[in-house]
Amino acid sequence: MKTHGIVAEFSSPATLLEAATRIREAGYTRYDCHSPFPIHGMDSAMGLGRSPVGFIVGGMALLGASVGFSLQSWVNLSAYPLVISGKPVFSWQAFIIVTFALFVLFGAFGAVFGMLRLNRLPRLHHPMFFSETLSKATDDGFLVSVDADDPRFDEDETRSFLVSIGAEHIELVRGDV
Amino acid sequence: MSVNTTTIKSTTASTVLEEAPLVQGGLTFQGITEKISGIVERKTPSLWWLLFGMALSGTLVLAGSIGWLVYEGTGIWGLNNPVGWGWAIVNFVFWVGIGHAGTLISAILFLLRQRWRTAINRFAEAMTIVAVICAGIFPAIHVGRIWIAYYMFPLPNQMDLWPNFRSPLLWDVFAVGTYFTVSFLFWFVGLVPDLATFRDRAKTKIKRFVFGALSLGWRGGNRQWRHYELSYLMLAGLATPLVLSVHSVVSTDFATSLIPGWHTTIFPPYFVAGAIFSGFAMVMSLAVIARRVFRLENLITIDHLEKMNKIILVTGSMVGYAYITEFFIAWYSGNIYEVFAFVNRGFGNYAWAYWIMFLCNVITPQLFWFRKFRRSIPIMFILSIFVNIGMWFERFVITVTSLSRDFLPSSWAYYSPTTWDVLTFVGSFGLFFTLFLLFLRFLPMISMSEVKGVMPEADPHHAHAGEHHGGTS
Prior knowledge:
The complex is a heterodimer.
Chain A lengths: L1 E9 L2 H13 L5 E4 L7 H4 L7 H27 L12 H27 L23 E6 L7 H10 L4 E7 L2
Antiparallel strand pairs in A: 1-3, 1-4, 2-3
Chain B lengths: L1 H16 L11 H13 L4 H27 L14 H12 L1 H12 L9 H22 L25 H34 L3 H10 L7 H34 L11 H27 L8 H32 L2 H12 L3 H13 L7 H4 L2 H28 L14 H24 L5 H6 L20
Helix pairs in contact in B: 3-16, 4-6, 4-10, 4-15, 5-6, 5-9, 5-10, 6-7, 6-16, 7-8, 7-9, 9-10, 10-11, 10-15, 11-12, 11-13, 12-13, 13-15
């Protein structure tokens, strides 16, 4: 059976936050802190910057707005110009609502699918799912997972390091994909 | 002595200013998981089957009514000149309005950091989605020839025809379509961590696979939460102007026409306030029942309900203000036709509908000025039902009274619905409850991850957290 990493359990959000800082300082890069809800301050404890999701949303929203506006302009100016109620063919004021709707729609697609892409989701399986304790992270557990492919990873050394920073339960994650 | 007085003063001040905890009854993180998952995991209660059976019969009534409509045509409804917009439009606006509470709670209250929203947002969002589905049926079926309803979308076709982008009815297609999609995405993104909880608790292989697929492989790691949280914030930011725009666009269906009583600039804000008002009332009616049936008193506390009642009071008063302003402006404009339209609303053929609306929307909600009534379950339940009724009548009054007394007195007529109008509307409630009951049965009705996140224990700087520190710090 292949070793995929180590999962260690901590007792509270505060200890997990503390552990995150320690693990980062020890030079680990491929680890994650799992919790049932996002913990305030965890991004800086793990040394992670601001998520780039915002740029994806902004780009997509602007794309949506331009698609909306140009579709309406093209339809009215070139594809099928038709005077209705004596309004000008290019009545841009009337196009704003559909433009806005598509701005929001594309932006929302950007927010959801951009987030999923950045998280490498959806996926049906992940090596860490071989762990028996990780499932606590969706209930009331505060856990750290260290991937076996982290350059600093060593079964015994990592284990004793995690114990030294207050881990309460350590599990070696093994399984065959 | 003086020290003592200060202490007493400061404690009284803090007890007054401090909010009651959002989660009561000493529930732990695990307690919340058990409570919410337990509702879905236990054997289906017979009450659920009873209600589901009733709701499903309603859905069949809807299906039958629509079937007959498609076969026979819109002549089965009470529509005739000059009232060409009857119950179908009334019901559409009614359901879309109800569908506003969910996204308001999830988006606007999220941006305003109203943490009490976590107890009711999932539930209200599900209600929104279901209400918008019910709403969407009416414009789709009232086009008459349903088989070409896709003409509403800008699809290339062999006749090279395009929809009229200058028409508010087309704006509606985009506004409501976007609203449904964004509300659905928002709801689903919120569900993912809870679906992962269900996956991890699943006992059978099928459940593990279904929830495993639906939770998309969520692991609850901070590298995921980081993108997730910002994505959720972005969705809230996008949904906030959207929720305010949708009913504004719906109101332009009326406001951009020339019918007296419709052609007013007050419509967009007035419609939005009414939508939030009716939506909160529907959330209240459902929450009071669900709280009782599923024993959720510790999560949906009386404080939560009181806050919702305050919103009902505020939006109800805004609606009342709009009703009165309409009369004032009609008089102040000096336009006799405008004056006639409004006097006719209050004292004409449909005065009964107007006063039902006024009583239910403006007068009875004023009881919520009193704390005792805001915190009384029977009172709030009855008042919320009143608001639901009143808001349906508001749309009826706006749509029908204006049309039935249009420009030429020779064409004036009294509109009455037929049995098919009634059956279609009743059937839409059947569909609403069918879908909502399915949601209650199969999905977490309260957001577990968000409720846990607003508990004091979730804050890493929480006072009691120190005792777990051990030797590490």
